[in-house]
Each structure stands twice: as structure tokens, then as C-alpha cells.
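Request:
Um, any thoughts?
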Amino acid sequence: MLFASSFSAVALACLSIGAHAAAIHRRDTVPGNSANFTSLVVFGDSFSDTGNVFKAYGIPQPPYYQGRYSNGPNWVDHLATRLNATMNNHAYGGAVASKALLPEGAQYKHAAFPPDISEQLAAFLANNTVYPDPATTLYPLFAGANDYTQSLGAGGLPNPKDIATAVADFIRKLRASPLKAQNIVVLLLPDFGKTPLISMSKTAQPGEQALATALTATHNSILTQQIADIQQNDTTIQISTVDLVKLIQDVQASTNSSGFRNFTAPCLTLKPDANVNSTDQSRDINNLNICSTPDEYLYWDFIHPTTRAHKFVGDAAYAALSAPRALVGGSTSTNSTNSTTTGAGGNSTNSTTGGSGGASGTQKSAAATIAVGFTGAASILPVLFAAVAFAL
């Protein structure tokens, strides 16, 4: 009953956030410009890391693919291929949007490595004196997921407004920096409650999945609104978004055409008799079961997609870039924000989301309860070649 009441309070807080008044932006359109991009500069976490953690620490190892947190190329690999563009990647597995927001006790609160996204940008600027052409450079960005797992794992209650604002502030930094970024594609968060990390946790408590889903929805709503605000105030910046929740729903609804058959379990799992406490064995492929049909799985491990799922994400990002671009016009006061999202097959759909606000800071017991789910499921991940050390 204690968790139920705490969960209800969190749910109500998330609903109240969605009810806050926001601005609806009138948008005229111009043709998309995906054909103009010749280079990608990437910031983010393990979803976008193409080998930075591997170069530093030698993980993740096979059967992970060439330093990716998947069994093959990830979404920025696929996107670069579609665009025939070069890639300069600064994403690190385990990176958060902002270390400053992590509670004391979080794994990376005071760690120099991995760098959060602002530190990634600072390092890039410090190591370069010639910057890419803003007109032909695309900046893919995915961040925020690890802020939740890190905070919850340390027993804290993450505030979606703070984390979403940190991502939005990074976009503002990109624009204001010497890079003068004017083309950005942002992935919204997938539904945490649907990941095997939560849904398959052996220590799951009632309501954990719903709470994780509520946190995701609130984060995405706030970030979507803040992105709209950025474009309202600066009509020269183009920010495309990919709604991963909607994309996965679309793919799941079209299994005959998508080819996916398993949306809940990971392809890569730990053998029942594996020694999870052995560092040596954590690098032994004999500890793992690998499914025979990875292309039919949405998840490669407990939180990362398969390369085929990444292909869908990359294609959705390409479709978002190729779609008519928004020109921000006037605004009127209302209780919702209209946004365009890209689903499976590159179809654009209009969705309505709430405005921004702050989550209540009084639900500590709920946070502690859901943290059990994160730490319980994550306890086997070090066996997957210690990848979790820079993935969660």
C-alpha cells in the first residue's frame, strides 16, 4: 500500500506536469535538406557510441560489434550511411546529460570518465580550431537515459524537468558555441517501462513499470516543448525529433512487415550456471546465450537495441530530416503543444503533448522501490563483458 500511494502521487505529479499551459507554434514548411549533409558530429551515450569507450577500456567486447553496444552498426552508423556523410563521434557509453543533477552516491557523479554531454562538447572545442560548416553538418543527439538509471540506482528521485532541461540547454550550447550548430536531430527517450531491464527484473515491485513509463512520458513532453521554444526564439535552427516510443509502437503493430517477433526479451542473456562474480569469466563468451535469430529481436541486451532495431531508428531519423522542415511562426496560449514525430517506415504523425513543469520531490519511497528494479536487473549485466559499467 505504501508503494501504491507513492506511485499514485508520482503519477499525479506527472499528469499535472502535462497539464501546465504551454505555447502552440504555427509552422509553415520548407523542403527537407537531408541531401545537404556531408558530416555528422555526434554527442551522447551508449546508444550512439561507435567505439569511444572501447578505445579507452576495451569494452564492450564481442559478441558486441566493434565497440558498439549492439550486435552491429548503431543508429548513427546507419544514418551516416544513408546520408553518405563522414562522422566525428564524441558519444560515450554511460554518459549522462548532466553530472551536476546526479545525487551523491551515483556512480558517475564525480567521475572524470565518461564525460557528460557538455564535457564532450568542451573537449571537442578544446581540441579543434577549425570547425565544420554549420550548413552541411548534422548534430545527432541522444541523452538523458543514464541520468534516470544513475539517479534511481543511487536511491534518488530524478526530476524529469531538470533532466529534459539539461538536454535542451545542451542544444542551446551547441547553437551558441563556435560550432554555430543549425541542424540537430534529437531522439526522445524510449519507454523505460518496456525495456527488459525493468520488465524482466526479478525484484520488480507492483507499479514499477508504470512509474518508469510515466517518467519517460513526462521527460519527452517537457523536452518536446523546450525544443519548440528554442525554435520559436531562433528561426534559423532546425531541430528534428524522433519519437522512439511511437516508433517502437508502430514497429510492434506491424510485425508482419517489420520482421520483429520478440519485443520483450533480450537476444543476449546470461547462462544460468555462469559465475556472475568472476571478472575473468565476465569476458568469456561461454557465459552467454546468444539467440539464433537476432534480427527478430528488438533488444540485443537488457537495454540496448539490436542493430536491426537501430536501422529502424536511423531510417526514422533520415525520414525526419527529409520531411518538410518547420518554420516557426506566431504562438497562442493553450494547454497542449503540437509536434511532428516520425514512426515506422518514416511516416510523420501529429501528436499532442503537454507542456513543462516540475515533478514532485516527495516520492522518495517510490524512487527507492523502482531503484530495486534497476539494480536487480543490472546485477547480471557485468557478465556481458562489463558493458554495463559504461552503459547504465
Q: What stands out?
A: The radius of gyration is 20 Å. The mean pLDDT is 79.
